[in-house]
Amino acid sequence: MKLNFLFILVFVGQLQALAQIDSTLLKQAEPTKDSLALNMDAVYNRPFMQSGKTTAVGGYLEANWQHLGTDGVSDGHQFQVRRMTLFVASAISSRVSFMSEIEFEEGGKAIAIEFAAVDIEFNPLLNLRSGIVMNPIGSFNQNHDGPKWEFTDRPISATQLLPATWSNAGFGLFGQYYKNDWKLGYEGYVTGGFDATIVENEFNRTYLPASKVNGERFMEGNVLFTGKIAARHKRIGELGISYMAGQYNRDLVDGLLLDEARWVRAAAIDFGTILPKLNTKIIGEITNIWIDVPSTYSQQFGEAQMGGFVDLVQPLLIRPFLNYNNTIVSFALRLEYVDWNVGTFEQTGGDIGDELWSVMPGLSFRPTQETVLRLNYRYMSEVDFIGNPPAKTAGFSFGVSSYF
pLDDT tens, 328-338? Predict the structure, then answer.
């Protein structure tokens, strides 16, 4: 009885205290515009449904057919929807924006958030980006949308040397500067990074893309720095220089030193231009990678890697066709080279293999700038680690890629 009496006194006292609070303060403390909002109303009670902001949705699709064979052995006809990518963007305010890129691969078997970041602008030369950011190594990693390219396949050096669409959780700064015909830009990010799978993987080689399958890197892991500077001239083209470095192993566990710190470093130079009069587009990228491989590993795991690609795109015909105003037919040629193990054998001094080169000519047809039909032929030669006679791969691919 005494406890019940005390509870009633406290309850009445609280009611009297509330009665003395200024009603304007209560209005300021209301979490929503609806003072009668229930928890079940939370799905409607969000800023984007109240502030009048505009959210934009878009994306692109890539669908292909291919028939390839290696040394006369083929998997036959292959029909693929390699990816559908969804963009969602919102202008939160005049100086705060959000952009995301979500990729669905292999018919939805693999789903990845490739980019999801908030940009806060302080000055054109100083802006903050935070979230899941695209590490700016090379050019293709940032500018990889399928409809922009004349080939059904992504560059081998960008997918099997560097990890294509390599993104991690983190933050950093970026900015740009304009002067007459020049535009300069920079980016610098501190993010999560690589793990030991770059040397502990099913490929039995040093292989940076192996870290992409580790979803834990978005929550915890090693630190990676990535930076890039780029310059573009209105008539000359663009040149970019990028670098990334970070530790990939765990040398300390619960404060105990288990191993020495091992680092991975990569540098890339990318360039792009359009030749006057001929309108020939030239796009290229060269990458070098250095890895601290443990001395207990065999020479099969390379401490140095390099590779790159060059795309040549020559418009052949630009004219109205059917109900399209300006269709473009182009000849395209891609040259590629990758060496996963640069160096020589310690015992013999002979060159280590584990390299390939590829030639891919093709034709493309663009009914609009946002949609491209691509017919390619690939001829590729790949040498294994010990330098056996190369395996030859050849075949055709046809695909459609379009923004929506």
Answer: 999 999 999 99
